[in-house]
Design a protein that fits this description.
receptor, GCR1-cAMP_receptor, transmembrane, 190 residues, G-protein coupled receptors family 2 profile 2 domain-containing protein, mainly alpha, 2 domains, extended, GPCR_GCR1_put, disordered C terminus
Length: 190
């Protein structure tokens, strides 16, 4: 079974790598080293079609998972714990949304470039590059900004700004102390 997995996991990408190599379709164009616009079919076969298949699979898989887990959580837990668990499920649902936002403009740009190769649109290229490079940042906002992380960022920012005489408002000091305690307690346990 493992050898079959390796054959698929390494064989298909290697074969897909060879297609543009032997057709001399790799090159530098519009600020990127990739498959040249003279081979638009390869761009879609190599990247955009598999990308949207994977995004569609993620949407289907995550929505099915959330549907089943939601029913399970609502039937087995009290309301307060169920609400907490459901918030986690909805954060999970944002993963395909982030993928769609980040790759929508790139796909539209490549479709337009395939139809009109001599008429590039700067705005499409800008949106393509901007949102394509924001995927990690969006993932950080959704998954990395827990309550403890936000409290620690506020603490560090408050201390840094206090060095130049600026004081931040709006933080609950009791919450900050509780967060400090839970963070130091977690560090002591590990």
């Amino acid at each position: 079974m493992l050898s079959r997995y390796h054959a698929i996991a390494w064989g298909i990408p290697f074969f897909l790598f060879l297609l543009p190599l032997f057709s001399k379709s790799y090159g530098y164009e519009y600020g990127a080293c990739w498959i040249l616009s003279t081979a638009p079919v390869l761009r879609f076969v190599q990247f955009y079609i598999p990308l949207w298949i994977v995004i569609g699979y993620n949407v289907w898989n995550i929505s099915t998972l959330i549907f089943h887990l939601r029913g399970l959580v609502l039937s087995t837990q009290d309301d307060s714990q169920a609400n907490t668990d459901l918030q986690v499920f909805w954060r999970l649902a944002l993963y395909p949304v982030i993928l769609i936002i980040c790759w929508f403009f790139g796909t539209i740009n490549r479709i337009y470039n395939s139809l009109h190769p001599d008429e590039p649109i700067f705005a499409l290229y800008f949106l393509h590059k901007f949102f394509g490079s924001m995927q990690g940042f969006f993932n950080f906002l959704v998954y990395g900004m827990s309550t403890a992380v936000r409290a620690k960022l506020y603490e560090v920012l408050s201390w840094t700004l206090s060095l130049v005489g600026i004081k931040l408002r709006g933080a609950n000091s009791e919450e900050m102390e509780l967060t400090k305690y839970s963070i130091s307690r977690e560090e002591g346990e590990s």
